[in-house]
C-alpha cells in the first residue's frame, strides 16, 4: 500500500501549555488537546488511566488491548512435543548443503502427524529456498537465536518471481509481503504464489484473492463497541471454538470510515470518496473466535472493535481457512548480504511473515541483512516475542497490514544498521496500515526507525514502553487516506534524539492519547494533520518519560483482565 511518499513535507508547529498537576487547556495549531503537567521526579498516575479503569472497553481515547496476542495474551506460549529432527530428513549443519528441502520435509511430516515440534540443532543450515509452515500446530524450533542459523542465499523474486503492485507502476510488493520463512495455510500459499506467477496480483486479505470467496453464516443485530455478546439472526452455523469473520461494509456516506476515525467533526468533513487505496480495504474484516452460543446470543473471545450498525450490513462470514497454533522459535535467519535497493524495489530478502494466521507466534528469532524483517499480513491474535532486526538495514523492520488485528509485538529490538544507507532507500520502522487495529508494540528498543503509521487509517493501536531514536519516515500516499484513525495511544515513550514526528500525536490523531513522553522538538516534521478542527486528543505528563504509572499500558490492561 505504499506509494509516492514525501518525507520532506514540513509539519505544522504545535505547542503544549504546561501548568500545575491539575488539568489545564492546551491549544495546538491542528486542534485542541488537554494537557496535564507533573513533576519529573516521582511516579504519576494519569487522569486518563483512572478514566480507563472505570470503562475499559469503551474509552474515547484508549483502546482495550488487554487480550492482544496469542492465547489472549498468554505469558507462556504453547509447547508442542518433538516429533521430528531435521537431520533425520537430510539436513546438515555444514553451511554448504541446501537444507530447505529437508527442513520442509520434516515440517510436512509433522503436519501429517497432526502437529508437533520440528527441531533444528545448533549450527548453520544453508537454505536455497523458502521454509514454509502451512500446517496448524507445527512449530519449527532451533537451539536458540545465538546457536542456530538459517543462511538464506536467494530472495523471493528469484524463488517465486516478480511481485508487482496491484496499484500499478514498477513497485515491488516484496517491499511489504512474503518471507523466506513464511507461515500461511497451504491453500492460501498456493493461491497466492500461483497468482503472483501469473502476474494477476492477488488480494491478500482474510477473504482470499477475490472478495466473493466468502459465505455468509449469519447477520447480526445492532451492538456497541466493547460488547462481547451479540445477537445473530441464525446461530445454526456457529459453534464454540470456531473462528468467524465479522464483516462490516461501508455505506455511501462513508459512515463506517468516519466511525473508525472517532465520528468527530474532522472525520465528518473529510473527503473520503477519492481515497481509492483506502476504499480497497473495506469491508472491514475482523476474525474472532466464538466462545459460547446460547440461542441467538453469541459470546466472542474479544470485545467488539467497533459499533455494529444495520447500515453497515453486519454479518459473520467464512474466510480463508486460518493457520493456527504454529510457531517459529530459537533461530537466526540471515540473508546473503546485498546492498539495500532503492525504495519500493525490494527483491525480497525478507525475514519471517505470518499470513492468514491466528494464535500463532514467533519467539527468540533474529533476522539479519533483510529487506524487510517481520511481517503480519491479514494475521490476527499472534505474538512476536524477543525478536531482533539487525545487519545492513531494512525498509520495514516490522510491518503490519491488510487488516491485521489484535497482535502483540513485545521485547523487540531494531539495531543500528551496519552499513550506510544507500541513496534512494527509505527506513520506516514499526509499520501499521490498511485498517489494522488493536495491535500492540511493547517494550521495544528502536535504535533506528519511527512509529510508521503508514496511512490506510490504522486505528486503536498502542505503542508503549519503547525507546526510539526517531530517524525514520512514514510511508503511504494521499489516496491511502489518513495516517491515524481513533484511539491511538502512545504511552511511556523515550525519544532519544528529541524529534517529534509521529511520537507526540495530540495534534495528529483523533481521539488519541499521548502519555508520558519526554519533551520533543518540532523540527524536521514528517507528519501533517489529516483532520481539521478539534481532534478530541489528550496529552498528559508531557515532558517526562518513565514516571507514568502504569509504566506499560498493555501489561496493565492484561493484568487487570487476568483477574476478572
Features:
single chain, 11% helix, 564 residues, globular, 17-stranded mixed β-sheet, mainly beta
The gist of it:
This protein is mainly β and 564 residues long. The chain contains eight helices and 30 strands.
Which structural class do you get from the secondary structure elements?
mainly beta
Rg is 22 Å
Please, what is the average pLDDT?
91
Major β-sheet, in short? 17 strands, mixed
Cα-to-Cα separation, first versus last residue: 39 Å
Low-confidence blocks of residues: 1-40
Portion of residues in beta strands equals: 25-35%
Shape descriptor reads globular
- The helical percent reads 10-25%
Number of strands: 30
**Number of domain modules:** 3
Number of helices: 8
Task: Summarize the SSE layout with pairings.
Layout: E1 23-28, E2 31-36, H1 47-54, E3 82-85, E4 94-98, H2 100-112, E5 116-119, E6 123-127, E7 131-133, E8 138-141, E9 148-152, H3 156-159, E10 181-183, H4 186-197, E11 216-219, E12 229-231, E13 243-248, H5 255-260, H6 265-269, H7 276-279, E14 284-294, E15 297-300, E16 315-317, E17 323-324, E18 327-335, E19 350-355, E20 357-358, E21 361-368, E22 372-377, E23 383-390, E24 396-401, E25 408-414, E26 440-446, E27 462-468, E28 489-495, E29 513-517, E30 537-540, H8 553-562
Parallel strand pairs: 2-30, 3-5, 4-6, 5-8, 6-9, 7-10, 8-18, 9-18, 10-19, 17-20, 18-21, 19-22, 21-23, 22-24, 23-25, 25-26, 26-27, 27-28, 28-29, 29-30
Antiparallel strand pairs: 1-2, 11-16, 12-15, 13-14, 13-16, 14-15
